[in-house]
Amino acid sequence: MQLLDTPTLPITEAKPVGWRSPPAALLQTYAPADVEFVAGRGTRLWDAQGRDYLDAVAGVGVSLLGHAHPALVAAIADQAGRVLHLSNLYHGAWAQQLAERLAAVSGMQRAFFGNSGAEANEAALKLARLHARKRGIAQPLVVVMTQAFHGRTLATLSASASPVVREGYAPYVEGFLRVPFGDAQALAHAQAAHGERIVAVLVEPVQGEGGVQVAPPGYLSALRSLCTQHGWLMMLDEVQTGLGRTGRWFAFQHEGVLPDVLTLAKGLAGGVPIGACLATGEAAELFTPGSHASTFGGNPLACRAACTVLDVIEQQGLVANAAAQGEALLTGLREALADRPRVREVRGLGLMLGVELDTPCRDIALRALQEHRLLINVTRDNVIRLLPPLVLQRQEVQAIIGALAALTA
Question: Which residue among the candidates 237, 250, 260, 287 is catalytic per the annotation?
Fold first, then answer.
């Protein structure tokens, strides 16, 4: 099928890549790079001038299988020719299958499907409120973390810490208590001061937007113990870390714990919008018919695409590949950048890595496009974030290392 072949595009005269003003017809929420990608295969993208680029962003962690994976293309095309959408008034076989498969790889019991990570986290926060009501707590608190990012709806931005995300949207949703990320003792202090009101803890095992901050060893286990002891819901936001990204199906599996609530999105359907809120134990019994809903949630196209993504991850051993290539990339970057005075730290887990510099570095993302045809992302102004597809291979690891060594020289 021609769609899946390596594209043959005419190479025209190159134009400089820079930042462009947002298109006039769009609300001014983005300032994109002035490059248009028209085709992709695997870890590669082609621009309108026919030049190829190595993608180490993967749509900010979305394109787990890379671009135009044959199995995903075939499943989407076949489903589009059958039925795209059915409301939740009727049984959805693909939604049921996806829920069962996610339960099998995660250890959770039930799933609710929406369209995004923000919606998945909204569902988790609503579960926390229902948990509070069940316990007779009138003014509940959900503990959240410094540097956290959980979405851009009013509730999830209230749970987030970024001033950029929050600016201009006050008054915020009440009911959040913020503590330092990775500090189990701070949680114990919060319990001592506000224990009668705390009903849940919401945390990212690795803070992506927060600068690829990895939870210290033992932190999730300590959190699990505190939640069990005090009857809190342990709610993990794995929107960015889930589905093999960190070298395990889920980041919490590195510590052998099990949350009460787990949120997923981004790469779940390989580029088709979907979000999932999974729950187990008492949390899985809190929603009842009519208490929560999503018009597009659980539609056949998204759920079949997600099942196909799970198929490919399993068949191609992509969780193990993420662990192996991620370790090679982390080790290689630490060695290559060890003598760079601008580099403060290289950190990460699996194929989720950050290179922290001592000054703002937004220009590096643009230079990577211009000079190395490499897609990278900068978060928190001074952290280069790498989220390549799980199909990344060793030669591409070396290309990323070489490019970042040159860009930080």
Answer: 237
